[in-house]
Automatic annotation (TrEMBL):
One of its GO terms (biological process) is xylan catabolic process. Residues 366-473 form the CBM2 domain. Keywords: Carbohydrate metabolism, Glycosidase, Hydrolase, Polysaccharide degradation, Signal, Xylan degradation. The keyword Signal applies. The active site is at E275 (nucleophile). Residues 39-353 form the GH10 domain. Belongs to the glycosyl hydrolase 10 (cellulase F) family. It comes from Actinorugispora endophytica. This is Beta-xylanase. GO terms for molecular function: endo-1,4-beta-xylanase activity; polysaccharide binding. It is an enzyme of class 3 (hydrolase).
Length: 473
């Protein structure tokens, strides 16, 4: 059933790594949408986020990628993308068993060209279903087969291309009970565990999430999600993360957001802010934009405060291409760029929250470690046959390192998906070269790489970290 995009090589073995080796032509092309604020001339958000060990992503829509400013911002600023609609059931399988992969493939290709990781959105949802499915009056066992086939086809095709799937989207009502969807009606609440198990079987390397809205703070709905997560983990169901969509209203960011992220993390789950936008009554004005900037700061800080919060994705590139005004009458201006592609105060706020204005470090400070480089290698999550790791490199020398390259030995570890650098492996040696958007490590500066790897045979601890050939501490 699962039709791979890459007939000769499984994507997870080579495709993603090859993709990461591509240089980004958009960066080389220069800035079309040059903004007027100082911040826009600064490092892209993806780069400052990488220094904090998180990704910063955006939803993108294929039909807008032909707009040069949209395309450029999408490629330059973000290290992760989510297809706004292209991987939904109605887009992929409008007729039963007949898949239209083109638009979704284009999103994956864009991500590869720009060294971006891809969040798969979404496998099982009540909305944006094709009419053959919505109106089909299928029995429970038929629905089970339909769901399994779809997961097999979609997760199979994009195995190795997506680092995570929103396997089940929006399963809850506001009071924390299960939403009355075709899935719940036909299969009961077990459809959630079944979908996760199926997705894991099809793509064992993907991180599997449940994703929902109005779950940013502690409330009845997030309590329902929390209780479900506890039950699924108790039953050994492959649930790896919680997606907190975060379609928020300016001035109303839930005060319990950090605490809420923390409670899911305490279960051993990753958390991602998957669809952030913060809307206001339009037109905007300076004071509304200031409030919104504060709100974005609060959300980014909530994620940064919890190590298992792996990243933030905004739901769209600019206010001119946002779903908000279409659905909420009189509201909008919810994103980081305005409709003229200019960065807003919220952009500056996110940049600052990500440490973008901080001094990268003073190499003459006696408290700074000495030597050319320091490496912090962490296993974030280990599931036996594989693991997710993070490698923080700090340039502890007194001068900048340009075109940095970090190499280390880790026999038995096969990296299947790596981000924030261009990854390659040969023999037992892993090498990560600077991505085009982050070529230089200034004195005192750190950057964090992330990866997912398979283990085979006897796995040795990583050793001999070298930055451009020089051994690190
Ligand atoms: O942004 C998406 C918009 O273009 C679609 O018309 C809409 C259809 O439901 O879905 C929007 O994205 C939604 C996402 O897939 C799930 N969470 C809520 C998002 C905003 O509605």
């Amino acid at each position: 059933m699962a039709e791979s995009r890459h007939r000769t090589t499984p994507r997870r073995a080579a495709g993603r790594l090859l993709g990461l080796l591509l240089t980004t032509s958009l960066f080389a092309a220069g800035l079309v949408a040059a903004g007027t604020t100082a911040a826009h001339a600064a490092d892209p958000l993806r780069q400052v986020a990488a220094r904090q060990g998180i990704h910063f992503g955006s939803a993108i829509a294929n039909q807008h990628l032909s707009v040069p400013q949209y395309r450029q911002i999408a490629g330059e600023q973000f290290s992760a993308v989510t297809a706004e609609n292209e991987m939904k059931w109605e887009s992929l399988e409008g007729r039963r068993g007949q898949y239209n992969w083109g638009p979704a493939d284009s999103i994956i290709d864009f991500a590869e060209q720009n060294d971006q990781i891809v969040r798969g959105h979404t496998l099982v949802w009540h909305s944006q279903l094709p009419s053959w499915l919505n109106d089909g009056s299928f029995s429970g066992s038929q629905l089970q087969g339909i769901m399994d086939d779809h997961i097999e086809a979609v997760a199979g095709r994009y195995a190795g291309d997506v680092y995570a799937w929103d396997v089940v989207n929006e399963p809850f009502n506001e009071d924390g009970t299960f939403r009355d969807s075709i899935w719940y009606r036909g299969l009961g609440q077990d459809y959630i565990a079944d979908a996760l198990r199926k997705a894991h079987e099809v793509d064992p390397n993907a991180e599997l999430y449940i994703n929902d809205y109005n779950v940013a703070g502690i409330n009845s709905k997030s309590d329902g999600l929390y209780d479900l997560a506890v039950r699924l983990l108790d039953e050994g169901v492959p649930l790896h993360g919680i997606g907190i969509q975060s379609h928020l209203v300016s001035g109303q960011v839930p005060s319990s957001m950090r605490q809420n992220i923390q409670r899911f993390a305490d279960l051993g789950l990753d958390v991602a802010i998957t669809e952030l936008d913060i809307r206001m009554q339009t037109p905007s004005d300076a004071s509304k934009l200031r409030q919104q900037a504060d709100d974005y700061t609060t959300v980014v800080n909530a994620c940064l405060a919890v190590p298992r919060c792996i990243g933030v994705t905004v739901w769209g590139v600019d206010d001119g291409h946002s779903w908000v005004p279409d659905v909420f009458d009189g509201q909008g201006a919810a994103l980081l760029y305005d409709a003229q592609y200019q960065p807003k105060p919220a952009w500056d706020a996110v940049y600052a929250a990500l440490g973008g204005t901080e001094d990268p470090g003073d190499p003459d400070d006696p408290d700074e470690p000495s030597g050319p480089c320091a490496v912090d290698y962490t296993v974030v999550n280990d599931w036996g046959s594989g693991f997710q790791g993070s490698v923080e490199i700090t340039n502890t020398g007194s001068s900048a390192v340009t075109d940095w390259q970090l190499a280390w030995d880790s026999p038995g570890v096969t990296v299947t998906n790596g981000w924030n650098g261009r990854w390659s492996q040969s023999g037992g040696r892993t090498t990560v070269s600077a991505p085009s958007w982050n070529p230089t490590l200034q004195a005192g500066q750190s950057t964090t790489l992330g990866f997912v790897a398979d283990k085979s045979g006897s796995v040795s601890p990583p050793s001999e970290f070298r930055l451009n050939g020089t051994v690190c501490s």
